[in-house]
Amino acid sequence: MKVTEIMRRKMCFSFEVFPPKAEQPLEPLLQTLEHLYRYEPDFVSCTYGAGGTNAGRNVAFCQAIKESGRTIPVTHYTCIGNSREQIKADLQRYLSLSVDHILALRGDFPKGWTETMGDFDYANELVEFIKENFPQFTIAVAGYPEKHFQAPSLEADIAHLRVKQDAGADFIMTQLCYDLDQFRRWMEKIRQAGIHLPIDAGVMPVLTKEPTIRMAVSNGSAVPRELAELIARYGENPEDFKKAGKEYTVRLIYEFVNAGIDGLHIYTLNRWQDVSEILEASGIRGKIRSGE
């Protein structure tokens, strides 16, 4: 079944994981996947590093997810450093493993780069290429509720999202966003722009102070007052911060669901214990997992 078919039936639920570095063992992430499978995700997406680093580990984990028979694997794939020939070879390899869902991205430039150094400069070009040459793929594209930090305006960013839709994208996966008022405004604006694709909202759990601030700032995302107060109040006490951050994340999940999203995508940071506590506190998956 395709993710888009699931979204037509219900609110989709999914996780993101990232593969370990080449010198690190595979087993911890395989164990993490086993724990995440208990929550019956509709799909699990797997990242790889800037410039294609760890791409081999990405393939291995997408294969492991597929072979588990537990859910749909979704691979990330970028324009960075990739020629048409390399893209064809890579995508054919994924298809040979029965991996037929892909998040098509321009990708973040590695340090010192100012362009993709590949045959495509923008995600819409990659989407169009995949659609024309590998129609078997279901294609997700990134959406930025607060705009991509390199875009000159929100309107320009939404226009680029429309171009990705018109190139053949099937659904949208959003960047982290803690500002739900802005998220709702963005949803309204993209619908006004004629973008009809289903929206899979990415949720970044709040677990530790420095990474929360770093990830928000590095993505050009706002830190709303409620989150800023949480950081100010508990930032010097890691245990209290994590407890308050999990409660904040549960409220965030509720707000996303009530915004009318088509899917909920949890960026796990490979921390299945913390994610499990958040999910069970929210009740979003606990009852499904336990069969109640």
Q: What does this molecule look like?
A:
This protein is of the alpha/beta class and 292 residues long. The protein has one domain: TIM Barrel (Alpha-Beta Barrel). The chain has twelve helices and eight strands. Strands 1-2-3-4-5-6-7-8 form an eight-stranded parallel barrel, surrounded by six helices. Strand 4 (101-105), helix 5 (123-133) and strand 5 (138-143) form a beta-alpha-beta unit. The model is unreliable at 287-292 (pLDDT under 50).
> Strand percentage, roughly?
5-15%
For the termini, the CA-CA separation is 25 Å
CATH fold description = TIM Barrel
Report the order of strands and helices. Answer: HEHEHEHEHEHEHEHHHEHH
* Helix count, DSSP H or I runs of 4 or more residues: 12
CATH class: Alpha Beta
Based on DSSP secondary structure assignment, what is the total number of beta strands?
A: 8
Principal-axis shape equals globular
User: How big is the Rg?
Assistant: 18 Å
Helix content: 40-55%
- Largest sheet entry: 8 strands, parallel, barrel
Mean pLDDT: 93
Structural class: alpha/beta
Unreliable segments (pLDDT under 50, ≥5 consecutive)?
287-292
Largest beta sheet: strand ordering: 1-2-3-4-5-6-7-8
CATH architecture tag: Alpha-Beta Barrel
Q: Structurally, how many domains make up the residues?
A: 1
